[in-house]
Amino acid sequence: MQIAVIGAGECSDGICEAAETIGYLIAANGATLICGGLGGVMEAACRGAKEAGGMTVGIIPGLDDGNRHLDVVIRTGLGHARNVLIVQSADAVIAVGGGYGTLSEIAVALKIGKPVLGHLTWDIEDVFKCITPEEAVLTAVRAARL
Amino acid sequence: MQIAVIGAGECSDGICEAAETIGYLIAANGATLICGGLGGVMEAACRGAKEAGGMTVGIIPGLDDGNRHLDVVIRTGLGHARNVLIVQSADAVIAVGGGYGTLSEIAVALKIGKPVLGHLTWDIEDVFKCITPEEAVLTAVRAARL
Amino acid sequence: MQIAVIGAGECSDGICEAAETIGYLIAANGATLICGGLGGVMEAACRGAKEAGGMTVGIIPGLDDGNRHLDVVIRTGLGHARNVLIVQSADAVIAVGGGYGTLSEIAVALKIGKPVLGHLTWDIEDVFKCITPEEAVLTAVRAARL
Amino acid sequence: MQIAVIGAGECSDGICEAAETIGYLIAANGATLICGGLGGVMEAACRGAKEAGGMTVGIIPGLDDGNRHLDVVIRTGLGHARNVLIVQSADAVIAVGGGYGTLSEIAVALKIGKPVLGHLTWDIEDVFKCITPEEAVLTAVRAARL
Lengths: 146, 146, 146, 146
Known about the structure:
Chain A is α/β, with parallel strands linked by helices. Chain A is 42% helix and 20% strand. The first copy, chain A, has one domain (2-145): Rossmann fold (3-Layer(aba) Sandwich). The mean pLDDT of chain A is 97.
């Protein structure tokens, strides 16, 4: 099972903490974490996943190594087009906070029918709002199994 | 000057008519129309641009020929990732109606700082709302010149 | 009809002159020139096509404006992955000189069954060797019509 | 360390056996196997890597699940453009047999300066020819460490 965490490359302490907890719980549930491989929400989620001994995959926009918590680095060199690969590769998508990049990922995910769980993120009709990180991961795991 | 028209592959009569007028006015202003090259809003805009003797470019997701009003066909084979190329190639973006695919294009355009004009589309803070097709094209042309 | 000219971003006087003649003849035959939009062979071919009053399309790897002879600029932001879009968009491909980038384009073109004409380029079995620019364009136009 | 194995989606018994041995040795050396995730050489290399308890990543052209030996599936939906992502993500590339798709990957790898080891593949100047699978993996691991 592959679960994506999407969010901005910079984040407030609260959002970062939520992302780290989400990453931890994804790994604790035996799923692989997929993300954009950079800083902010992405790095926090990876750090959490590694604390739980999980596997992390970064689909990065450039040709570098991404953040230091990645087990697998996909160097796409595609710039913003790499956002599409993240949601396509996921069985469920969790959005945490986020700006326009995150909105573009939410939109593509909904376009292709992936379940999208949202925690403190854009208010879009088909995004399932989750009050806590725990609820987001639990719902994502259930949705990914369907 | 390259102006993109984004919108869904199927559309109501009202949306299609607006898209056709927008395409016509883009060409009448001497700009090249960039679009996703398929049906609905994209085809209507192309039809309008060709009525005004303009140039049309379709950046299509597959490897086919797109709609029959295209002067230039870019066969990306990239699927949904081709949305990013449309907004990156445009000096200004006009969104007409639209679903989640259009939302993803609006989001990427705002992320990279392109001016986005909206006519009967998603209500997003940085999208400049235009009541008529004429206002949308006039504002897009002005923004593209900046 | 869309004909691609592929070749390196820097070239000797002889290769550049050949590319310019090829661009001129593509336009003179009423076809649209597709290329990678940068310097060297690409720029020479575009200059030739504009001398003949033709249309030029640059599918560029970055987000800039490409060379100054482009009528249409597709800002892919895809880096090397944009090579694939060039050959997919062409009805026939003419390779002039070239290094490993050109070889990758020849290989993708042959993989997807596009006719490839070669002038002073890689010696690959399915590339049709042309002694002169005139022969290359004439053969490309015929192949593109099939 | 990430090592890519590239080759055709269908292969003879001899080529498949070589690819399986190469995959096994990559995993035995503690490296992650990157490949295109489909059948033939790709599947054989993955099978080998899993026999050695290694990790396998498939960067697939479509939106499906790829072969059944993949630990991580990147659903690019990019078609042939995904070839570029495979070689960019690798620290060294091993080509086994192969047709024009493989040639395009070799060319991109050489263009961007990745070490390319070849076993029973295209005869290109900068590809380091290896007589045995063992030699190919040993040399790839050394090159990836530089």
